[in-house]
Amino acid sequence: MSVRLQYILIAGVAGLLFLPFLGHVHLFDWDEINFAECAREMIVSKDYMRMQIDYMPFYEKPPLFIWMQVLSMKTLGISDYAARLPDALTGIATLLSLYYVGKRVADRQTGLWWTILYAATWLPQLYFKSGIIDPVFNYFIFLAFFQVYLFRQGNRPILHAILAGLFLGLAVMTKGPVAIVVAGIALVVYLVLNRGFRGFQWWHFLVLAFVCLFVTSIWFGLEVYLHGWTFLREFISYQAGLFSQNIADHEEPWYYHPIVLLLGCFPISLLFFQSGKPFSAVPPASLDFRRWMQILFWVVLILFSIVKTKIVHYSSLCYYPLSFLAAWQVVRLIRQEYPIKRWVQICLLILGSILALLLIAFPIAGMNISRIVPYVQDRFAQGNMEAAVSWHWWECLIGLVYLAGIWIFVIGMRRSFRRSMIGLCVLQILVIQVTLLHFTPKIEAYSQRAAVDYFEGFANKDVYLQTLGYKSYAYLFYSRKTPSTNSNYYLTTKSQVGASAVTVSNEHWLLYGVLDKPAYFIGKVGDEDEWRVKPGIIETGRKNGFVFYKRIHPDIEVLDTLKSKPGSGF
């Protein structure tokens, strides 16, 4: 097979995995809808230099990923599919890059297995079907590390220094200075293990730093020139707060990310632990890249296990080194350099069986949800479980097929590792695809669909719409909210992180102030007593844990009466 055909085949398979059905479920609160709403408001306001939420400055992220979503929405229209398309395209680019890098640093077989394993892992597939920043951010960071590796191994170190700075700068423009923090710590660790700059020219890193600074300054500098230091000051305050504070109840135990990687990155999370005799026959260049991947893995894992705020995608950068190190072991097992360890096989069986049993349990729980509700203490969760979701016994077959396949292929690894590994990866890819396509809409029906349907009912209507008692971006995106012209609507308040000030919708004014148009609200079951006592607030309905309200204010009715009279001036 020609090299060109190999890449075409990988791109075609990746396209089939990531592009179809991107819009078959609504975007999920918070992150997916947060970024999509920033992109939508850029289009509506025609202000492409600043991120906005509810048409007020949003200081939490730089604009690169938002620009990608804007381009997608400009091409396909404002939709769930368009919001997720940049990550799907990143998924295609990622698999092509893994094959290329694997061939470059080792051999074709390593590149092929790296690509296959990455596609056959749960969380990477899920992330390439999402609309969050991390897949793009991780891709740029990975490319930067690869270019730094080529400083030592490539023939044109200056070019690789420039490219490393470019990719690192793009990573900063995607998510912020955490890119520099990760890269800087990893470089320090590498130089300690390498005993200094042996094999490098130290000034190449100065070139990298200069290019990175230049790339980031293009936007950050223009932002400071146009609007002053406000964004940069608030942005840095927010980023520092993520490391030092628990944001939005995301403070988890230190072992949170190891568990996420162990379960969500099956089977590579266990193949990672396979090892054998020393690598005497491996070229030093391959071992050097392996060292970079080991450093990247442990730096990311330890760093985000230390920080206060822990969210599942914070450790997603580990997917690149984890999958490479797993592919490294798979190739050596296929070449029969050593047998697979018995305890690794047993762990593959145990963890794979747990995941399969969870897939079997989903339909069973769904069909018996009325029996589960009495054991749930949270009233909002009870309301969520009232959603009309259809479940059938045949859906258990997905988990049963997965369970049988796990046992067949894992047990067969000692007889024919290559054949069994191919079977396991094909099984993984198919089951992940079916699970995401079939079960995700059902999960969304429980968690948020009632609220999204409510918001969509106000699309392009001239009303106020607000959540009560909980945070959401969904009401902005799905109601297609336009900028508010009444200055009373906005309120400047203290940020959740640090001492910075942010402007948000004025909930107090919407509940008590003199309004110029109707106001509608949504809250959660269990909080009704707090909102019912507000003057003029009436409940208009409830569904699946959400309660809907409308504010009746006499001034609105007077205005409506005046508007209906000729010559009234309205």
Summarize the SSE layout with pairings.
Elements: H1 3-18, H2 31-45, E1 52-53, E2 56-57, H3 64-76, H4 80-105, H5 108-119, H6 122-127, H7 134-153, H8 157-175, H9 178-194, H10 202-227, H11 230-244, H12 256-264, H13 268-271, H14 284-306, H15 319-334, H16 342-367, H17 369-372, H18 379-384, H19 396-411, H20 417-447, H21 449-456, E3 464-467, H22 474-478, E4 490-494, E5 501-505, H23 507-512, E6 519-524, H24 528-532, E7 537-543, E8 546-551, H25 554-563
Parallel strand pairs: 3-6
Antiparallel strand pairs: 1-2, 4-5, 6-8, 7-8
Helix pairs in contact: 1-4, 2-3, 3-4, 4-5, 4-7, 5-15, 7-8, 7-14, 8-9, 8-10, 9-14, 14-15, 16-19, 19-20
Description:
It contains 25 helices and 8 strands. The protein is globular. The chain has a 4-stranded mixed beta sheet. The chain has a two-stranded antiparallel ribbon with strand order 1-2. 62% of the residues lie in helices and 6% in strands. The mean pLDDT is 90. It is of the alpha+beta class. The protein folds into 3 domains: 3-250, no CATH class; 351-441, no CATH class; 452-563, no CATH class. The longest helix is centred in the C-terminal third of the chain and has 31 residues, at 417-447.
Number of domains: 3
Helix content, binned percent: 55-70%
Q: Bin the strand percentage.
A: 5-15%
Stretches where pLDDT is under 50 for at least 5 consecutive residues are none
Helical region count?
25
The strand order across the widest sheet is: 3-6-8-7
Q: How many strands, which pairing sense, and closed or not: the largest β-sheet?
A: 4 strands, mixed
Based on CA inertia axes, which overall geometry fits? Answer: globular
- Mean model confidence by pLDDT: 90
C-alpha Rg, in Å? 26 Å
> Given the helix and strand composition, which structural class is it?
alpha+beta
**N-to-C span:** 74 Å
What is the count of β-strands?
8
